[in-house]
Amino acid sequence: MLFAVHLLLLLAGPLSVAGKQLQPEHGVEDHHANSSRQALLGAAEGSPSLRIAPGNTDFALNLYHLVSSQRAGQNIFFSPLSISAGLAMLSLGARSHTKDQILKHLGFNLTQLPEPTIHQGFRHLLHKLGHPSSGMEAHLGSSLFLSQDLELVPAFLNDTAAFYNASVFHANFREPVEAARLINEHVREGTRGKISDLIANLSPSTQLVLVNYIYFKALWEKPFPLFKTKPSDFHVDENTVIQVPMMIQEREMHRYFHDRHLPCSVLHLDYKGGALALLILPDPGKMAEVEEVLTPEMLRRWNRLLHKLGPGRKLELHFPKFSITTSYVLDQILPLLGFTDLLSPQADFSGIIKQGHLQVPKGFHKATLDVNEFGTEAAAATSFVAFLSAVRKDPHVLKFNRPFLMAILSPDKHNILFLGKIVNPLKL
Fold first, then answer.
1. Which pLDDT belongs to residue 249?
2. Predicted local confidence at residue 388, as pLDDT
3. Mind listing the domains of the chain with CATH numbers?
4. How many CA atoms within 13 Å lie on the side-chain side of 357?
5. Conformation bin of residue 312: beta by default, left when phi > 0, alpha when psi is -120 to 50
6. DSSP class of residue 307?
7. Is the dihedral of CA 50, 379, 419, 226 positive or negative?
8. C-alpha 44: how far from its chain's center?
9. Which end of the chain has fewer surrounding CB within 10 Å, N or C?
10. DSSP bridge partners of 138
């Protein structure tokens, strides 16, 4: 008998299992994996995470432009990597046109980048992010929460474990309030308390929850002196000026330049552990003009020019200290990016469950960003639920006292972990 299975897909920060409340399912790894999995595991090594970086960047910027068009004058901050990794993991159980559509609109050309290489790339990136590093903590991982009477396809469990480090837990969705509490607690612990109350409620008919989580905390390579932070003007727009705590560095060496062809300044701020913040400060009133040319090619150009600067030059830097939180309804966004099958009744996820029809009609994403004198802390969670100065006079002074763009890049400098636009640092 055909039945509908309700799916919840979460994307969040690092995994910290609440062992007393949720016990992982044992025996997920099948030593007699099918040929599909063997093909995936047999993907070429080399630098697989670099091979998926162009697709991840395309997806990140496409999503940014869409969100920006919908949220004029608002803060934007999200983890494109969290969303793309969760969708890529979901594609392991998708079939036919649904699978092709997911991978295509994640930015991958299957004629140039075979599916095995895509999953190998995410596995490689996940491993590199999880590698211990002094001054930086970063994790990207996944979990499956399933109803006790739900029978999943073994290959799906094997592949999600092999490529996305997915752990399996049982949850009683017939008690939706308790199930939501357990999942929220899982996400809260995984993101070190940064993401909480992601799910307000669940339907009793929910059968499966997929969770992807990302968490990032890093110290600045050159921290800001605490005693120099002071209140300063921040120009939200032509008519709105607010007071924000402004951090100040005097005469530190940084790689930065003012673009000769575009009305903006570009700055690299390095984190300990190899990650970096790419910061773009449009000239007054020129945000829209800079956003219009925000493409993968422009990011590569800026990075190439910054790299040519070597160690950089001395700079007096003013940068706001702030904390923001953003939320998005993905089922209203993803179809506009081409994911029309994913959230429709026509979606084919027959590679996840042995019988029945899986639907994913709802999606949510929540992200937080904290920037202070010592460094940056950021986390993101997503759920799919079924059921400077006004005039730049001194080239050696850079003041982020107006809206700016910010991307946090992985240690390989090619994958965007977080992306956003800070319009009002005081707007939570």
1. 94
2. 25
3. 4-219+324-385 (3.30.497.10), 226-321+388-422 (2.30.39.10)
4. 12
5. left
6. H
7. negative
8. 25
9. N
10. 216
Distance CA 366, CA 133 (A): 26
pLDDT of residue 310: 84
Both tokens assigned to 48: 């697989």
Cβ atoms 2, 179 nearer than 8 A: no
Q: Could you tell me the pTM of the whole model?
A: 0.84
Q: What pLDDT, on the 0 to 100 scale, is given for residue 171?
A: 86
DSSP 48-97: HHHHHHHHHHHHHHHHHHHHHHHSTTS-EEE-HHHHHHHHHHHHTT--HH
At 313, which helix (H) or strand (E)? strand 313-320
- Cβ neighbors of 132 (< 8 A, separation 6 or more) are none
Mean pLDDT, consecutive 10-residue stretches, the chain (428 aa), reads: 40 31 40 42 61 96 96 93 90 93 95 94 90 79 78 90 87 88 86 80 79 84 93 95 95 92 95 92 96 95 91 92 88 91 84 78 77 80 43 68 95 91 89
Q: State the residue for tokens 């032509």.
A: 238
Q: Provide the CB-side half-sphere exposure for 129 (13 A, CA).
A: 31
Report whether 7 contacts 347 (CB < 8 A). no
Helix, strand, coil shares of the chain as percentages rounded to 5?
30, 35, 40
Check residue 33 and give its pLDDT.
Answer: 41
pLDDT given at position 41: 41
Closest CA to 154 of 31, 23, 11: 31
Rg (C-alpha) for the chain, rounded Å, is 22
Triad 179, 95, 29: Cα angle to 5°:
60
Q: Report the distance separating Cα 30 and Cα 282, nearest Å.
A: 53
